[in-house]
Design brief:
Elements lengths: L9 E8 L5 H18 L3 E8 L5 E8 L2 H7 L1 H5 L2 H7 L4 E8 L3 E4 L5 E5 L9
Antiparallel strand pairs: 1-3, 1-4, 2-3, 5-6
């Protein structure tokens, strides 16, 4: 997945509430699912799968090149057995959130934080 300078990323976050004994299996299933999604969706720029320390939650973070790229890739979601994944891993709840990136700061070679993506003035709405 390549980086496109000055793009305004569209970020999806999906939080799963699961029994602690299912956390690791769900996290691995989401990693596999994300790898498959990346093969079919050029607009997917980054994915992170995180587990809470209490063992009850898994967070999937998907960063898209833009909301338009996400919309173009959304046909792939229809084919995915999302509900089956939830049942298999006994998810008790799922929370969805989406955000349009205004800025992204990264540490540069000089040690300072630098704006990597977009500006607040370039924001055109979600």
């Amino acid at each position: 997945m390549s980086h496109y300078a000055h793009s305004l990323w569209f970020t999806q976050m999906i939080e799963y509430d699961v029994p602690p004994e299912r956390q690791a299996a769900l996290a691995q299933a989401l990693v596999s699912r994300s790898e498959q999604l990346a093969q079919h969706c050029e607009g997917l720029e980054g994915v992170s799968v995180q587990a809470s320390e209490d063992g009850c939650r898994v967070l999937q973070y998907l960063q898209w090149r833009s909301r338009t790229a996400w919309a173009a890739a959304s046909h792939a979601f229809v084919e995915e057995p999302f509900m089956a994944l939830l049942r298999q891993h006994q998810a008790r709840g799922v929370n969805f959130a989406a955000y349009q990136a205004l800025r992204s700061l990264v540490r540069g070679a000089d040690g300072g934080l630098h704006c990597q993506v977009g500006t607040a003035q370039a924001y055109q709405g979600a």
